[in-house]
Protein: HNH endonuclease
Organism: Streptantibioticus cattleyicolor
Amino acid sequence: MTRGPIIATDLYTTVMTRAGWVCQCAGECGSAHRRTGGTCQAPHTDRAHLIAAPPRRVPDHQAVTVPPGELRAWCPVCWQHLQAAATRARAATAADSQKSLF
Ligand SMILES: [Zn+2]
Ligand SMILES: [Zn+2]
C-alpha cells in the first residue's frame, strides 16, 4: 500500500472539490483579480498546489477548531500575499497597543 502526500486528506479533497480545484481568493490577498472576474481562479497544478485554509489567519493552537466549512482553496501566490497582509496587520495592531501604553 502506498501513501499519498500528507495534504491529500479527505478534508483537503473535500475543500478542493467544493472549490472546483481553483483558487477561491476574492481579493483577500490584496489583488482585485479583475482579469478573472473578481476571484483568482488559479488552477491546482503539479507545480502550484492549492492550499486549504480559512480566509483569516488563526493562531496555530486554534487551527484544529476551524470548521471545515470555513476552509477555502488558495493558490500559493494569494496565500503568500494573505500571510504578508496578516503579518502587516498584526504589526500595526502591536504598534497601536504599544502607543496606548504611554
Ligand atoms: Zn489565487
Ligand atoms: Zn488573490
Observations:
- Residues 10-99 form one domain.
- Residues 76-99 form the longest helix (24 residues).
